[in-house]
Amino acid sequence: MNARPLCRLRLLFAFLVVATAALLCVRANAQTIVEARHLKVSLLSDQASISANSSHTAVPQHVGLLFDLEPGWHVYWTNAGDSGEPPAVKWTLPTGVTVGPLQFPVPKRLPLGPLMDFGYETQVLFPAEMHTHADSANGVPIAADVSWLVCRQACIPGKAHLTMTLPVGDGGASAAAPLFQKTFAEMPKVLPARAKAIFSQVPNGFQLAVLTGSRVEGAQFFPVDQNVIANAAPQPVIPRGDGAVIGLKQDESLAKAPQTLNGIVVLADGTSYMVRAGHGTIPPPPISVSESAGFARYIGFALIGGLLLNLMPCVFPVLFIKALALVQSSTAERRGMRVQGIAYTVGILVSFWIVVAVLLALRAGGKQLGWGFQFQSPVFVAMIALLLFFLGLSLAGMFEIGLSVTSAGSSLAKKHGLAGSFFTGVLAMVVATPCAAPFLGAAIGFALVQPAAVAFAVFTALGVGLALPYLLLAFQPAWTRLLPKPGAWMELLKQATAVPIFGTVIWLVWVFAQLAGATALIGLLTAFLLLGIAGWVLGRWPARLPATATAVAIVMLAVAASVYGVRTFPAPESVAARASGTKVDHTRRWQPFTPDVVAQYQAQGRPVFVDFTADWCLSCQVNERVVLERPEVLNKLQDGKIALVRADWTRHDEEIARALATLGRSSVPTYALYPGTPGAPARVLPEVLTTNTVLDALKALPNSSTDAGSSRTASLHP
């Protein structure tokens, strides 16, 4: 045989051997690390080998699946959220080897249009605990059949077969051990024994209290069970001294409340806990020593806010009437005015105590109500309008009712005078509720999330502030010498006082129409006519029992007529929608508030300005007309691509109440400016706005990717 062909044959054989070995190496590597579409998955171990000393003892170690993902793509948590499914694995193991279930690190919220997924981006390791008896000198073979779903705008399923053989040796950490340690450090922890989690059911959702023993400024909840909460809905957080309360909206398909809420709570500092919250009553937060200074500050806010309420157009006419009574009284009578001042103060305080008791009782029942909640009822607005109209008729001189309502007369018996002062205090408190003075929003928002004793203390300070001007005049009658002396001008001035009273009535009629619709005005206007007849009867036959009885009967008929109008002529759907927080802005500048609108804009990198308002809030109307509708303010908002959202609280709306509670407020007006960063807290502006206040707040916004996000927000515009 020729030597040259034989040599070529040997070279070809050697080449085939080398090529086969290379292919085997590539095949082995492919079984340990698989590159698929948009990701790479690897099978890892935290130990380089299995210790030879473990041949008779089950020694735990960890294996894991590492996913490296392309930018923008993600895989899923054990509860994938509104779509998707988590990675799964089927192990093939030799006898004596067991691997536990995959462990899932804390996920992220991944918004996708109106949906919300829970998962991981960039890189994630899913570890699993492995126990083995290392009896084989050749090592322990491990095989894993892995399946997954990787998503961006679209989803792509994938599979891989991974294998790894762990040799028997001296043990020791592998190169992947630091990655395992980092993952374990970030795993959710068991809730400490001193801490607890409890949830209560509220309309349309739940409140989850995580009580860790220290104040929690922010938190979010990831449910283990599907179809329990609305995943995409915001989760407002109310911090408290011993933890926080998270607001959760229930899933629309949930038919029955769960016995427990299971999931992971992630705190603002990154700490995470596994919780299994039972159903119960959330206890009120304690007041710690460190919070005493804050408590004193809010007491001061309430006192100053109540004092400033006297300057509001709602309250000033009532205070003026009481001051008029001081001027009109004689020196001897002024000594008794101290008692009148106390009665007026008690009337205010009792009214505030009743309101706060109602609010706390409703809060205990799961309701979210705030300052001025009674003006969300058209019947209540009608009653106040009738009362002020009747008072205006008396002040205008149509009749004398003994002036028991205004307490301006000195001819009354002492008992009647005290009753008049008391109920004037009640009236002052009632007409004060549509107004919000500086410092008032923070004080009320603080009070309504505190224990009952703290809430009553704050509202008592508010009442004292409201009563203080008249109380000081009553105890220092010499100060009235600075006012003009009594004379004929007093009667003229008293009649002139009816003008702002009637102006307030006109505004209340407008509020009533916003709540109940124009058709229901028939009943209210009929009631005004009847009150006019009752006033004529009292003026035509003063101080006569038959006339008084007739007038009382007519007044009762007027009340019945206004209530009948509300009950018989329900508000049209357009009016009800406008008054329940979905008011349409025909200028197309402001869009209605929805629970997830702020989160959607922030996810797109766009700042949001939210105007919490109500038709019955005078301060709101003034701020909107004088500041927010000014061309320079609107231009600045539009130039900065600020999303404008209006939360109309004219009628009660549970979602708006929760959003206010998240901001530490319980009243309107409230103005919140959210940066264009997902989850970033809002800056709350003062109740009384100025142009410079708004412009300065806009300048202080951090740089955000509004240009990038603006092209994706078209679907959110009305």
The outline comes out as elongated
Distance between the termini: 91 Å
- Domain count: the total is 4
Biggest beta-sheet profile: 8 strands, mixed
> Count the strands?
26
Rg, nearest Å: 36 Å
Percent strand? 15-25%
The number of helical elements comes to 20
Structure description:
The chain is α+β, with helices and mostly antiparallel strands and 718 residues long. It has four domains: 21-187, Sandwich (Immunoglobulin-like), CATH 2.60.40.1230; 190-279, Immunoglobulin-like, CATH 2.60.40; 290-377 and 402-490, no CATH class; 580-716, Glutaredoxin (3-Layer(aba) Sandwich), CATH 3.40.30. 42% of the residues lie in helices and 22% in strands. The protein is built from 20 helices and 26 strands. Strands 14, 15, 16, 17, 18, 19, 20 and 21 form an eight-stranded mixed sheet that branches. A five-stranded antiparallel sheet has the order 1-2-4-10-7. A five-stranded mixed sheet has the order 22-24-23-25-26, with helices on both faces. Helix 3 (292-309) packs across helix 9. The longest helix is centred in the middle third of the chain and has 34 residues, at 331-364. Mean pLDDT is 77; it is low at 1-30, 402-416 and 704-718.
